[in-house]
Amino acid sequence: MLFKLMPGLYRLSHYDRSYLHKDIVAGLIVAILFIPQSMAYATIAGVPLVVGLYAATVPLIIYALFGSCKYLSVGPVSIVSLLAYSGVSSIASPHSPSFIELILLLGLLVGAIHLLLGILRTGFLFDFISQAVITGFTSAAAIIIALNQVKSLVGISLPPYEDAVSYLVLLASHLSQANLDTLVIGLSSLCFLLLLKKVAPAIGPLLVISSSILLVSQLALDQRGVDVVGAIPSGLPKLIITFPTMETVLMLLPIATTIAFISFLESYAVAKTVAKKEKEVIQTNQELIGLGLANLSSSFIGSIPVAGALSRTAVNYQSGARTNLALLITALFIIITLLFLTPLFYYLPKATLAAVIILAVSKLVHLSHVPKLMRSSPLDALILLSTFLATLMIDIFLGLLIGIGLSMFVALVKKLLFPYKKRNPL
């Protein structure tokens, strides 16, 4: 019974020691990628960088024990961080104490939703959400994230993003105010990341970050207008168990529900992809339970909602990981970083962090197959483009709702018009 509830514990209890070397190597390589990513995604969520590092520890350990995919790297991800920021910023002023408190409570609600759906064995519900909706939404969200980072990349101040057109106009009108040192660091970081992406994708971000820290500290560029992240607190996260009021729950529930669905769909898609290569089966309801407990634990240590990450999972698998021990080794290395290494990041320029984010989210834009889709399935193409444009031009939550509503309407029409025709998936 215990092993059924904790598939990861079963794997560890039957561990083949011949896998140890591969798991250790994979775990360390993923940690090297995870550290800059977790700080970057904390930036997107509008919380202190250390909060992102917290989300890379206990939640990953919990998922490694309760999740059904032995490769899935759970922690902060860009889309979930953007959803958290966009949702809570409509309720509280960004970066304020109440804003941070509400974002930390989101993990509790997201985890509770996942856990409830998993216990009730309702994983089949996610099959009703069209892949076209997810593709359109994530592509638009990735562009929004990238646009939001341009100001840090070049060293200018801009008001929060509202829609793509007005933001691009604002950006163009403020480019003359760019800080030259910041601009050079930001664009150089982006160029080197693109170059290293081809030769050393796993360690590229850490190499660029290390080089930029050394450059800023040695040339005292922080005194010439280059923004740095500053002091990051050392030490392990503390246990924080806070139960929100009913008023707060009702206020956050729409945001939490959206995040719960999107984060699970993203995690489940990644898990299925790597599991298929190993001819393994992913249990939908167990994934909901594993991700739910990971999010609950993230809230209890004062961190942000988490999900499975495509890039880290791919690196974990390609680096030779054989079991979930690799995930535990990744978490251990990040705990060591929190205890001893955070002072090293003081001079990390925000422009370099912006470059890391832009490159990371660029992989989420999937529009190249739209022309082919328009020929093979025009209705799916319509859903994808409608979701994409509504998310990019109107509002991130409204765009997702429009996409889901249109997807359900099209599915209903198809069912009524072609009751016996099997639909081809996207």
TrEMBL record:
- Keywords linked to the UniProt accession: Membrane, Transmembrane, Transmembrane helix
The cellular component terms of Gene Ontology attached to this UniProt record, alphabetical and capped at eight, are: membrane
Q: Where are the transmembrane segments?
A: 45-66, 73-92, 98-117, 124-147, 167-195, 202-221, 241-267, 288-310, 325-346, 353-370, 382-413
Regarding the membrane, this protein is recorded as: Multi-pass membrane protein
Where is this protein localized, as stated in its record?
Answer: Membrane
Q: Extract the InterPro entries matched here.
A: SLC26A/SulP_dom (IPR011547), SLC26A/SulP_fam (IPR001902)
Entry keyword annotation includes Membrane: yes
**Residues of the SLC26A/SulP transporter domain:** 20-387
Q: Which GO terms describe its biological process?
A: transmembrane transport
What is the protein name stated in its UniProt record? SulP family inorganic anion transporter
Keyword Magnesium attributed: no
| PANTHER family per the UniProt record, alphabetical | SULFATE TRANSPORTER (PTHR11814)
